Amino acid sequence: xxxxxxxxxxxxxxxxxxxxxxxxxxxxxxxxxxxxxxxxxxxxxxxxxxxxxxxxxxxxxxxxxxxxxxxxxxxxxxxxxxxxxxxxxxxxxxxxxxxxxxxxxxxxxxxxxxxxxxxxxxxxxxxxxxxxxxxxxxxxxxxxxxxxxxxxxxxxxxxxxxxxxxxxxxxxxxxxxxxxxxxxxxxxxxxxxxxxxxxxxxxxxxxxxxxxxxxxxxxxxxxxxxxxxxxxxxxxxxxxxxxxxxxxxxxxxxxxxxxxxxxxxxxxxxxxxxxxx
Length: 277
Known about the structure:
Elements: E1 34-46, H1 48-54, H2 57-77, E2 81-86, E3 89-94, H3 103-124, E4 132-147, E5 150-154, H4 156-167, E6 173-176, H5 177-183, E7 187-189, E8 193-196, E9 203-212, H6 223-231, H7 246-260, H8 267-272
Parallel strand pairs: 4-6
Antiparallel strand pairs: 1-3, 1-4, 2-3, 4-5, 6-9, 7-9, 8-9
Helix pairs in contact: 2-3, 2-7
């Protein structure tokens, strides 16, 4: 049987190859199996280039592994899935394999937990400075396909989520317009601002998440009223599942998976603490 050839350069391909060893072109791109409405969360470690220059390569690999594991665990806790890892960035998706009506709130809550836990992770890893993250959250229709053991999420909304993350300052969570509309009853937002999204025509509206709230729409309210709203927020968010629920089991599974990959996530400590807004 003749060997399969690369569609770009025509050279023979090794059996089971995903990329051409000669030119690097992908052998095949899986067809999208369906279109779905999802909420994507892009998480990027701020200052990773400087950190990499301060530690040796093996130590930096350990830090990244712990960071990836922490983000994966926080995502699984509220029903999200970490679908992509690119260097110090992680793509989390809410809405696959199953969608929930409060996925937008879950996504923002996860972003808040990731931001807060990242700083503690830096301390746990013995770093001189806390780990800070930039996060973008966007909701919209995407094409979902499969490749080996994971999903592939493709579409303009994914790229726009990445642009929100790039525009965020360290420690900031920027949310797209649709996500804000879906989450406004459970999340407080600051005033909107516009950002330039490379590759897209026109500016994109971004909302800064200020945390959990109980009242209807706090978008565009003053800092003082937002703080007052948060003061009435319950100690644990209503969307956090009770102990012993399916999501708790999911988190435990995520912890075991992290351990099998060598991720240091201190999951038992995280599970014991109260989840605050």
